[in-house]
């Protein structure tokens, strides 16, 4: 699948054109290699390093989506490998 399309389906960006611009900027890496073409092919098992506002995300592609679905469906497309990010269930402090 095209990298820009997958980023859009996984809800990392709001539009395909924003995804293409993110990739074209040359700051995104696939398996440690810089990528600058939005049409770069990715598949399950690939590791993406992408700069987003406020932090750099490191994720592993788990699946290729068929559509841009709801957030819970998009979350199933990747695993977050960033050790500093708290898991979603631990985001709020327990009392």
Automatic annotation (TrEMBL):
What the entry lists under SMART domains is as follows: S4
State the organism named in the record: Szabonella alba
- Which GO MF terms are attached to this record? RNA binding
Q: Which Pfam families match?
A: S4
* Record keywords, A-Z: RNA-binding
Q: What name does the UniProt record give this protein?
A: RNA-binding S4 domain-containing protein
Domain (RNA-binding S4) ranges: 1-63
Q: Which domain of life is it from?
A: Bacteria
Q: Which InterPro entries match?
A: S4_RNA-bd (IPR002942), S4_RNA-bd_sf (IPR036986)
